[in-house]
Amino acid sequence: xxxxxxxxxxxxxxxxxxxxxxxxxxxxxxxxxxxxxxxxxxxxxxxxxxxxxxxxxxxxxxxxxxxxxxxxxxxxxxxxxxxxxxxxxxxxxxxxxxxxxxxxxxxxxxxxxxxxxxxxxxxxxxxxxxxxxxxxxxxxxxxxxxxxxxxxxxxxxxxxxxxxxxxxxxxxxxxxxxxxxxxxxxxxxxxxxxxxxxxxxxxxxxxxxxxxxxxxxxxxxxxxxxxxxxxxxxxxxxxxxxxxxxxxxxxxxxxxxxxxxxxxxxxxxxxxxxxxxxxxxxxxxx
Length: 286
What we know:
Elements: E1 2-4, H1 7-19, E2 24-29, H2 35-47, E3 50-55, H3 75-85, E4 89-91, H4 95-98, H5 116-120, H6 124-139, E5 143-147, H7 151-163, E6 169-173, H8 193-198, H9 200-214, H10 220-232, E7 237-242, E8 245-246, E9 259-268, E10 271-280
Parallel strand pairs: 1-4, 2-3, 2-5, 3-4, 5-6
Antiparallel strand pairs: 7-9, 8-9, 9-10
């Protein structure tokens, strides 16, 4: 496994791979890797000849009052996980390597970014799309892997790839959870022991809503009320948003009719956590 921090070296290595006919997969990350990231890397490794993991805490996707400076970083830990998962190359650039001082070019996807996290974090997806498009141009992967926990991000990246004609297949991978149900997240390290216990209310509230849909509930407001009621039972939880949206358009729906995404964002103490589930209404066989 090689670790490089400049664009020229990455391009040289990838061009040599492609000259030999190898397929290349990419797992973009911000580091502080956990089992969720590992599952992405392992899937990438199984489906491609070569696997690249980018580790870069992207400054332009953080707002002024967000946690860019305090975001957890541990490159040695990340290297060990990448090696164990079968990574061939880690790209770990500095911000100065990816962004020119006078850079004035950004990539932005509209509509899909108007609600959910995009509404709450106005600069976030502009930063995400810009850095991911740069990684795609630098690494030129055949496939790229993203976790479904960041469901809006996955939808936005797929739309960007479609609209800009990137010759890349974007694949979403299932949420990896702790044994008690908490979705894996690098930000889980911010939680105190009492907050870690309180954070279980996210998956618990979503499970109640999913059970209600499976039992026949199709009313979006009722589904949101179920989640809200459970979240409010936890004193340390502060709701950021609860939505029921169409899985493709991410637009709010009043009734669960086809395929829906039910995403939530909740502050546990000062830590903002996200989680979701998707559900597809199957047509009854005639």
